[in-house]
Amino acid sequence: MLDGKTIVVTGCSSGIGLETARELTRRGATVIGVDRNPNDELDRFIETDLTDPAAIDELVGRLPDSLDGLCNIAGLPPTAPPELVLKVNALAPQRLTRRLVPKLAGGASITNLGSLAGIGWADAVDQIKDFDKTDFDDVERFCRQYDMSDGGRSYFFSKEVLLTWTMRNRWTWRDRGIRMNVVSPGPVDTPILPDFAATLGARAEEDMRVMDRLGTPQDIAPVIAFLQSDASVWLRGANLTVDGGMSSYIAMTSTGLGD
């Protein structure tokens, strides 16, 4: 399914990123992993600090030409400092993608890891527009202005940014056949799950009560692999919600159409 393809995966050393790297490899791809922590399972690994724009630019310089895919999966939880969350979860995927596009082959696929946390993006349009003008050296000002430390807001906002950035760039590179989509998981059993419980408290407990189970990285990775395959060539700017039905539950209960 992915034989002959070379795909870059950020956040490859744990959680969904690690399982995605494994899934892509099982399907025949050559995977170049990127993370701040090592991974010795892969064809090639490059240690990179995604909070540092210079390190991202150096990473791009070390990557080969004619890449077939990019999976932006690296992320920080809501317990991390807000400016770091926005750098890794929102600014880094944008910078890496834009700088890597010239090295992508025609027909390449870009897949971003969003989250159910981004579902409220329509209520944050003004903030998102302001963030468009924000870069790595200005992100602390942005966090203070919008109080991104409040209740893990930095994480929710980072996913709202990534989701809308994906949709807004659905056709940006279509002259070369390059597509970009996003996968939005619900609660997934990964090493950072306790961070969400600590931040969200009763809100997280309510989510758990209406779900049959937590997701696993093995639930998410095959969907990302599908988006990296030629079977997804006409998906552009799509948001695939892999959340056990949680987004449908939210939509129905919030509109009075049922539970």
Automatic annotation (TrEMBL):
The keyword Chloroplast does not apply. It comes from the Bacteria. Keywords: Oxidoreductase. Pfam families: adh_short (PF00106), adh_short_C2 (PF13561). The keyword Ribosomal protein does not apply. Transmembrane segments: none annotated. InterPro entries: NAD(P)-bd_dom_sf (IPR036291), SDR_DHRS6-like (IPR051122), SDR_fam (IPR002347). Belongs to the short-chain dehydrogenases/reductases (SDR) family. This is Coniferyl-alcohol dehydrogenase. It comes from Pseudonocardia ailaonensis.
